[in-house]
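Problem 12. The chain below contains 281 residues. Write out its predicted structure in token notation.
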Amino acid sequence: MQHRTRLRSRTTTPRTATPRTATLRTAVIAVGGLGLAVLAASPASAAPVATTATITAPASVTVGDTLEVDLTLPATTDVFAYQIDLAADADSLEVVDGSVTGPDGGFDSVEQDGDTISLLHTRLGTSPAISGDLAASVELTATSPATVDLAVTRVTVVASDGSTITLTDPASTTVTIAAAPTPTPTPTPTPTATPTGVPTATPSATPIAGGTDGTGTGTDAGTGTDPVGSTSGRPVGGSLAFTGADLAPWIAASAALLLAGAGLVLARRRARRPASTEDAR
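Solution.
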């Protein structure tokens, strides 16, 4: 098998309809004309031999990917130049400039005319014709989603004496082009507001009537410091009220007892006065 090499020089061809045989002959005459003229003076050689072609490519790619298409002409004989036409959907596949390769010691070029991609190779000057498995390749860029049939529609081989043979529709393969994934936007975290502190009102002191010493001049008198609901537990009303007892009934009962006692004493004194008068008489 011949080695492949990257394009060493490239021709740019306007994308206009050109007969395939005319394109091949132009390449052969321009680059290999001298070699054909020299070889034509020698005894005639047998016609070139090429019976089939093969094509391989990735089964699936994504839009934006570059895929390499490999082409092979197996078991050839006396090949001085060839042209391989490849059918490809121009809306989905585009040739990568400078990506064509072919056998060493020759000139390679590629052109894309609508849905047809043509790979051309010719030997240089007095380089001899080649035989065996001839390998070529080209890179394509996937430009839109589709299922594309890549088909070798025509192969034209030129021998060193100028004779040609043509193969029609020898090979094909299918490539599925998927749409590029849509990037998922990363959600931006929403800043959380930090609650500000709410000031708490400090309860003011509530004046408490009455003083701790019963005079009204203590800390609890008038402007006492015990607020309402204070944990001191001291009730309003001063020190006596702190006992929790109602003194009014006790005071009334004591007064009644005092009055009753005074009445008894007075009654006894009155009872003793008549007896003393009698004794005096």
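Discussion. The chain has a mean pLDDT of 75. Students who got a different answer should revisit the alignment rule from Section 12.3.
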